[in-house]
Amino acid sequence: MRQSLVVGNWKMNGSYEANRSLINGIKQNIASVKNSEMAVCPPFVYLSQMKRLLKDTNIGWGAQNVSQQEPGAFTGEIAIGMLVDFDCKYVIVGHSERRSLYGESDELIAEKFATVQAAGLIPILCIGELLEEREAGNTEAVVKRQLDAVLNSQGVASLEKSVIAYEPVWAIGTGKTATPQQAQDVHAFIRGQISALDAKVAEKVQILYGGSVKGSNAKELFAMPDIDGGLIGGASLKADDFLAIGQAG
Length: 249
Ligand code: PGA
Prior knowledge:
Number of strands: 8
CATH topology: TIM Barrel
Bound molecules: 2-phosphoglycolic acid
CATH class: Alpha Beta
CATH superfamily: Aldolase class I
């Protein structure tokens, strides 16, 4: 039985004050979350605040991105050692906004994935198709290509200490959730691809769903056999919604 995992991706949202009240709200009722591990990924500059606010809790934290480079002359970038300094557990790599707005390629994302693992942190690898790719019947080919970039360079065993997030791009921030069956079909496809290489790794790896998950739809999504939790954007910014999603795990 895979542990349910619910991760908040705050994107470029938050402020010192807003974060404090959000985290306090989550902490107050975290006991209502029985079956999910919870984590939040704020913007980099708030990681020290998370370390302070969350250190004695069972809520984890992580980053939304990382450089694949060693420390050096890379203005504006963040090295993995800096995330280690702030006790990050997770690092999101390959979010669709990084792919589409910042031109991150499958190869670069595979490098970032390797960088995160080499430092002993857990990469959350995001994959998912655009609306036009789904409509053209290419969903499986797209997620396979995105997954293969990591499988081919890092090997299947690398997935054992990683999390995959399937996020159909047309469902992100749109209020348009994939149906549980649509999501399950792609999750089963992803697990099947991994299973063809290593059944034990496939059985173990957590595959999260992301894309307009809310307290009201989380339960039916998480009830699907290959959906092991969620990567949550908008709804992770409200304590009650985030907790309700955790309770659905
Ligand atoms: P959303 O974002 O929940 O706001 O759709 C999910 C994500 O981008 O990870």
